[in-house]
Design a protein that fits this description.
The protein is built from no helices and seven strands. With 83 residues, the chain is mainly beta. A hairpin with a 5-residue loop joins strand 2 and strand 3.
Length: 83
């Protein structure tokens, strides 16, 4: 993937559904800078990691035949594509 910084994170815009059934947040699609939207086919796994008092909400999603990881940083309210 292009445009990754040294931490292998790329900031993306995400459209997500909040408060859906048993999943409090579900990413539906994301957009990388200068590209069209990419639809999320399936939510595979979610987890929360606490790093220095900040909660990172991690979503492993299926996009086509590839597994991608989206992270939501609760302190900056920013979304990142990490894989």
């Amino acid at each position: 993937m292009k445009n990754f910084n040294k931490n292998n994170k790329e900031r993306v815009e995400v459209m997500a559904l909040f408060g859906y059934e048993m999943t409090p947040c579900q990413p539906l699609m994301f957009r990388r800078q200068g590209e069209n939207e990419t639809e999320v086919g399936e939510l595979l796994r979610t987890q929360i990691r606490f790093v220095g008092g900040v909660a990172l909400h991690i979503f492993d999603v299926l996009v086509g035949r590839e597994i991608r990881r989206l992270e939501f940083d609760s302190s900056t309210l920013a979304w990142y594509l990490t894989q």
